[in-house]
Amino acid sequence: MSVINAEPASRTLWTVSMMYGGGRTTKIEHAVWSDTPDAANQLAIKQWARFDKQWMDNCDNVDGSATKPGEAYQGFACIECGADSLMINVDTVVYHEPNMTGVYTLGTNLLKKVLKSRGIDTSTAGLKGNAAKNALADRLKGYAAPPPKDAPAAAAAASTSTSTSTSTTSTTTTTSTNSTALGSASADNSAGSKRPLEPMSGNEAPNPAKAHKKAAGTCAAEGTTL
After folding, report:
1. At residue 195, does pLDDT exceed 70?
2. Nearest-CA neighbor of 16 among 1, 3, 29?
3. Where are the alpha helices (DSSP H) in 47-150?
4. Strand order in the sheet with 13-20
5. What percent of the chain stands above pLDDT 70?
6. Beta bridge partners of 215
7. 3-state DSSP of 3-71
8. E strands of 118-200, at which residues?
9. By the 8 A CB rule, do 47 and 63 touch?
């Protein structure tokens, strides 16, 4: 399990967890400091490379195509020819909202690694077991914060800006190329060329991405239904 400082100044912590068999076993693979879940999402999607695709079915968002910038990733698949199921989630670590990873659910070793990554004291002198773990969780609770309210919007805006810039550059290049070709053809006609002047067509807009369809089915050996 690794702790990654995607944004050294961020106080928002995300976890990448792998849940087998509908919750039978859950393991946190990574913890990521970042205002948005995007860095954690990339790590989550890479986890699927562990499994042979020919033995996977009922795949739902395995490639992350259904997750928008600023949204936390979630993907599912039946693995090992239906012998097991796996859901990979990205969650923010908070303590006051439901359906999120709580600081008191994290293990002692993970808590120490996370606190150490931020230079926070990890000593638990005189404390043992749950008392020591809760003391560490209290420190993380006092430091960690929910994602900034404008972080998802900023991530989406950055993605839109990049797409718009790329589209504008492509259009400008196409227009310039067409203008040059038209000028050349016009010059040929003026010189008495028999080649007729033909209009130049611009590049066709790319086909929109196909809408993501949620997989439906059951992992044979488990009876785990999506």
Report:
1. no
2. 29
3. 108-117, 129-143
4. 2-5, 25-33, 13-20, 84-92, 74-79, 57-60
5. 64
6. none
7. EEECCCCCCCEEEEEEEECCCCEEEEEEEEECCCCHHHHHHHHHHHHHCCHHHCEEEECCCCCCCCCCC
8. none
9. no
